[in-house]
Predict the structure.
Amino acid sequence: MDNHRGCKGCESSYHVTDQQINRMLQAPMFQSPEHCVTDEMYQLRLTACSGCDKLMNGTTCLICGCIVQITAKLKARSCAKPGDDRWEAAAAGIWAAEER
């Protein structure tokens, strides 16, 4: 699959900036432990996404169209890749380490 093509919902010239992502992550809902994963889990999710062939421009999931830096922060969300839930695998690694 060509990872350089544009997102389905965006013009090919549009790219989300780090500044825009950081501004969204400052919203109150992203500060809530009730709605958000821990910082450790967030970093593991981002690492899992960074190794995925469905990540476009370091920000966009080509499967669901989300901005991974935003979606990875939310407890209620999961990896959209069918048959290869990278976030669940990352969580399993944390749980296994805590049980030791």
